[in-house]
């Protein structure tokens, strides 16, 4: 078990290294990608700015709290783009062009190699740093004590959020094994994800429940700040520990079904 | 036996698409599904160290067979064992022992120098450092690409890239090497070099090689045994020089006439393969040589004539044509 983990960690390290070298080959593209992300970031910050200017409290959330939610959302979007996004988008290309063929013959998990092979630095770096910055600023403005346990649990929640994000957003991309093209489905999941840049309590209770239990996007970015603000119930905390495992299990099952449907392509 | 295949079949379903916009709109609501039998009930076995070539026209089922042997595709029915493993169960112990190279697909990272991709394969196949250095040294020397290891793959020529692909496939010393059109698109010199490399590698390492190609030369030079496949069925299994025997010892007679004759006259003689002005080509049974020669010399204005064996290419073309009906296996 430990040996296998070590092997996968080593392979992942080579993936990261290779991706970095490959992306540095196109410096200008890399710089542009970051510039575009900074521009997007400003648009997102406008939401917070408006809240600060007006100074309104929405459903019990002060502008500082809002900033923490936007920060959490921004950072998680960054992590998603960094680790998963390009891989998930590529799945339908793999199916269409039959490029999964050679990956199937490698003696490592196909899911690992097909869904984690690309690490995209261009579109993610700004978001991760800016998101973390917003969280830190909001945290200190609200005078929330910085205890080791609180920080550690917060980081654990961020990690669980990344795992959950992988599991939930992999599933819509797997539809490509049946339909080949999934651009429309991917658009939809991106739209659902974007609902997340505000605290979930802004939505009605039915939306909140669907987004917490059925398609738990709110769990990913809402729960870590809710925990810091002491607003997370015990039941939610337990759900946060179970959900990543449950959805990882489900996505694994769906992966296995999907891969049986792979029919390669002309060569 | 290192590979045993028994009654393997694979069919694909797909929907028909007629020409034009109207049918695209109809397709949105109702699709007519069709089934294509890519491989139908094929059986063969291969011993360790053999070099076997799959020969056949486009769409014959060569690549599909190779994909099933490597576990990429699940068959519709039948069984196959490679080192005792069922390929499509995709066990890691199985995958460590073979490699597949596809002339039209690459595993090297496009923007990186080849050595970075090779190192990734080293990690994936868990090759130890000393072994890796030795194998890499040996292969780069043999293929004469030592200087190119640090060049980005996208800057390499097709031939150079193919050589790098081969190194990537051989870095873990597989016992079986599956090659799908390995020389496709290469110039004649590169083709020859790659063939020579395979021949040497097979002799030196006793690696079993199974390759598909529609270049006759690939098969003729490298393989002691060929499996000719057409319409998903095996139509011939044996040495290429035996193709003629399988065709019933047929011969070709080429004639040059002093003046053109009517075609019906020629048809009286036998099967006319080609007929242009004064040049005629017949195919006939070896046993009829005497009778045919006598008749031709007596009745036609012959100024020159030769009797030859059917060239292998033509023999194979004859097999292709008969593939639809003829299902014999050796």
UniProtKB/TrEMBL annotation, chain A:
Alphabetized InterPro entries for the sequence: ABC-2_transporter-like
UniProt entry tagged with the keyword Membrane: yes
Record Pfam families: ABC2_membrane_6
Keyword annotations of the record: Membrane, Transmembrane, Transmembrane helix
Record field: transmembrane: 38-58, 65-85, 121-139, 151-169, 207-227, 233-250
Transmembrane among keywords: yes
Protein name according to UniProt: ABC-2 type transport system permease protein
Species in which this protein is naturally found: Paenibacillus algorifonticola
From TrEMBL, chain B:
Cross-referenced SMART domains: AAA (SM00382)
Keywords assigned by UniProt, alphabetized: ATP-binding, Nucleotide-binding, Transport
An example molecular function term from Gene Ontology annotations: ATP binding
Domain ABC transporter: start-end pairs: 23-256
Gene3D superfamilies found in the cross-reference section: P-loop containing nucleotide triphosphate hydrolases
Pfam families: ABC_tran
The keyword Isomerase is assigned to this record: no
Protein name: ABC-2 type transport system ATP-binding protein
């Amino acid at each position: 078990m430990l040996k296998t983990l070590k092997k996968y960690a080593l392979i992942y390290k080579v993936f990261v290294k290779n991706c970095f070298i490959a992306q540095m080959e196109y410096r200008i593209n890399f710089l542009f990608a970051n510039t575009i992300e900074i521009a997007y970031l400003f648009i997102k910050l406008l939401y917070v700015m408006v809240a600060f200017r007006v100074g309104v409290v929405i459903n019990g959330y002060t502008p500082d709290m809002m900033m923490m939610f936007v920060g959490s959302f921004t950072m998680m979007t960054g992590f998603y783009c960094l680790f998963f996004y390009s891989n998930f988008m590529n799945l339908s290309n793999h199916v269409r062009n039959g490029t999964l063929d050679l990956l199937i013959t490698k003696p490592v998990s196909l899911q690992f190699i097909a869904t984690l092979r690309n690490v995209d630095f261009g579109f993610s770096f700004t978001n991760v740093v800016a998101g973390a910055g917003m969280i830190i600023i909001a945290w200190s403005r609200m005078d929330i004590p910085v205890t080791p346990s609180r920080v550690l649990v917060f980081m654990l929640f961020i990690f669980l959020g990344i795992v959950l994000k992988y599991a939930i957003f992999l599933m819509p991309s797997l539809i490509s094994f049946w339909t080949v093209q999934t651009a429309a489905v991917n658009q939809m999941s991106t739209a659902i994800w974007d609902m997340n840049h505000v605290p979930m309590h802004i939505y009605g209770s039915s939306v909140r429940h669907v987004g917490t239990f059925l398609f738990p996007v709110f769990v990913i970015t809402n729960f870590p700040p809710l925990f810091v603000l002491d607003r997370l119930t015990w039941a939610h905390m337990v759900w946060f520990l179970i959900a990543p495992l449950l959805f990882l299990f489900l996505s694994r099952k769906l992966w296995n079904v999907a891969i049986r449907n792979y029919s390669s392509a002309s060569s | 036996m290192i590979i045993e295949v028994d009654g393997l079949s694979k069919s694909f379903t797909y929907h028909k698409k007629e020409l034009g916009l109207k049918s695209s709109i109809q397709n949105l609501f109702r699709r007519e599904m069709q089934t294509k039998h890519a491989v139908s009930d094929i059986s063969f076995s291969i011993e360790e160290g053999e070099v076997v070539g799959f020969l056949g026209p486009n769409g014959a089922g060569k690549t599909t067979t190779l994909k099933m042997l490597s576990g990429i595709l699940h068959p519709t029915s039948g069984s196959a064992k490679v080192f005792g493993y069922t390929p499509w169960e995709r066990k890691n112990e199985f995958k460590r022992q073979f490699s597949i190279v596809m002339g039209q697909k690459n595993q090297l990272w496009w923007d990186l120098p080849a050595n970075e991709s090779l190192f990734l394969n080293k990690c994936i196949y868990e090759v130890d450092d000393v072994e890796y250095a030795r194998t890499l040294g040996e292969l780069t020397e043999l293929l004469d690409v030592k200087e190119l290891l640090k060049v980005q793959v996208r800057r390499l020529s097709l031939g150079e890239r193919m050589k790098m692909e081969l190194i990537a496939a051989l870095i873990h010393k597989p016992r079986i090497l599956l090659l799908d059109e390995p020389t496709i698109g290469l110039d004649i010199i590169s083709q020859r070099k790659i063939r020579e490399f395979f021949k040497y590698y097979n002799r030196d390492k006793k690696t079993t090689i199974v390759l598909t190609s529609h270049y006759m030369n690939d098969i003729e030079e490298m393989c002691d045994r060929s499996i000719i496949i057409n319409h998903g069925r095996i139509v011939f299994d044996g040495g290429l020089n035996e193709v003629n025997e399988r065709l019933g010892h047929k011969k070709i007679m080429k004639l040059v006439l002093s003046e053109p004759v009517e075609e019906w006259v020629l048809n009286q003689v036998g099967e006319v393969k080609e007929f242009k002005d004064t040049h005629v080509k017949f195919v006939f049974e070896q046993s009829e040589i005497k009778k045919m020669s006598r008749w031709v010399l007596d009745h036609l204005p012959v100024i020159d004539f030769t009797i030859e064996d059917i060239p292998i290419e033509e023999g194979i073309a004859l097999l292709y044509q008969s593939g639809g009906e003829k299902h014999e296996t050796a």
